[in-house]
Amino acid sequence: MATASGLNVDDLGRATLERAEELAGLGSWHMTLATGAVHWSSGFYRLTGVEPSTPPTVELFFSLIHPEDRAGMVEAFQAVTTGSSSLPTERVFRILRGEEVRFHHGELRVERGADGTVLHVLGYVQDITEKRLAEARAREADAAEAKTKVLEIAERERIVFINAMAHELNNPLTPLQLQLKVLQMESKGPLTDGQKHAISLLDRNVKRMGGLVRDLLDVARVQSKQLKIEPHPTDIGALCREVVHTYEAQAAEKGIGLTVSGPDGCVANVDPSRIVQVLNNLLSNAIKFSTTGAKVNISHGSQDNQVEVTVRDDGLGLTAQQIEALFHPFSQVLGDKQAGKGGLGLGLYISKGIIERHGGRIWVESDGPGTGSTFGFTLPTSGPVPTEAPKEAKQKVVAPAAAQDPRHRPPDVRRL
Which end of the chain has a smaller Cβ tally under 10 Å, C or N? Predict the structure, then answer.
């Protein structure tokens, strides 16, 4: 039968069906059990990736199914063709298209004769790969979000713990320092040389404990973005000279040359006490890890609305791997070489927090072990200080040299 346009009605219906399958991402097939004849629609050829000129067979279809899904599909087909299965039968399975694995949703139905015998088996398939991948991505995103929330809670609890612990450790230090001061003044009576030495030793250790407690408090403030600063225009050169003067005796005792260089007029909008804290850390580390005869230099200058300060030493030097870990809390990257030098490994982490809180950045350069190191930081010459530190200030490093696709699854240290 033909239409007014001359098209055969069967051909028109077939074309309409194939267009509908294409739009819906569907494919279909049927098999006549009496003859074993199999027909695949163009959509089925498209979904399986088989050339349309290839004769369709049940065996060919089974060969395209993922090995882990094949036995189940064969069993379902046999159950349908013998009439021993409840109908319809639906299943999600994987198809191999070369190196690519695709997810398909399939459904089997039958047509029976008057006596209940299965005459025809009809199959419908739809590619649901993108849907499955989207679902997998959504699950992974949900899991990542849940993990992030757990980590955020743990981080807040850790910061609260560090803060509380530091305060509890700090509480007894103040009366200890006061009592030691009273004893040193000999207001309780004259002291022997041995008593004076013992009190001096106690005083040094109490001050050291106080410094460690202050570091812990600063770590908590940096991590909770509550580090308080009071910036105002400050002569950076004067701060450098002040810190160098503080360490001259210690450097001379080790036979280390200590110099400061830079032009006058390097002014930056900073909290001077916090910048002195950074300079103290960098200079004390440079002296600590330098040997007799070494030289340490602090230099400062200004350019492009920024002041740059560097601390260069002739000490141990660093590898690229050590540099990467250096600004993390409790960082210890030189192992036995650090033994006996003290510290919790918090100084550089706190220094990084202070510099970033000022809107600057901090970095370290080294050409490797035995070549010394250069630590540097920049500070804004003017302008407001950000309310929070930048997300991730890049470190300047100079030193020598996936989630599983668901389609492939079945349904020595240095303390600074």
Answer: N
Residue 342 reports pLDDT greater than 60: no
110 with 83: CB under 8 angstroms? yes
Residue 381 main-chain phi, psi, to 5 deg: -75, -25
| Contact between residue 278 and residue 377 where contact means Cβ atoms under 8 Å apart | yes
Cα distance between residue 164 and residue 49, in whole Å: 65
Going by C-beta distance under 8 Å and a sequence separation of 6 or more, which residues neighbour residue 170?
Answer: 210, 213, 214, 217
pLDDT at 65: 92
Share of the chain above pLDDT 90, in %: 36
What's the token pair of residue 70? 């094949």
Mean pLDDT of the region 235-251: 93
Q: What is the mean pLDDT of residues 104-120?
A: 87
- Count helices and strands (H / E) in the chain: 11, 12
What per-residue confidence (pLDDT) applies to 116? Answer: 83
Report yes or no: 332 and 406 within 8 Å, Cβ to Cβ.
Answer: no
- The CA-atom distances, in angstroms, between 191 and each of 180, 204, 385 are 12, 18, 51
Its sign, for the CA torsion 371, 310, 260, 346, is negative
CA–centroid distance for 298 within its chain: 34
- Per DSSP bridges, beta strands 118-127 and 257-261 are unpaired
The answer to whether the beta carbons of residues 256 and 287 sit under 8 Å apart is: yes
308-330 tens-digit pLDDT: 999 999 888 898 888 888 888 87
Tokens of residue 369, six digits: 């072990």
| pLDDT of the residue at 334 | 60
Whole-number Cα distances in Å, 278 to 178, 189, 322: 28, 41, 20
Residue 3: is its pLDDT beyond 50?
A: no
Q: What token pair was written down for 288?
A: 């600590």
Residues 321 and 14: their CA atoms lie apart, in Å, by 67
Tens of pLDDT, residue by residue over 49-63, are: 899 999 999 999 999
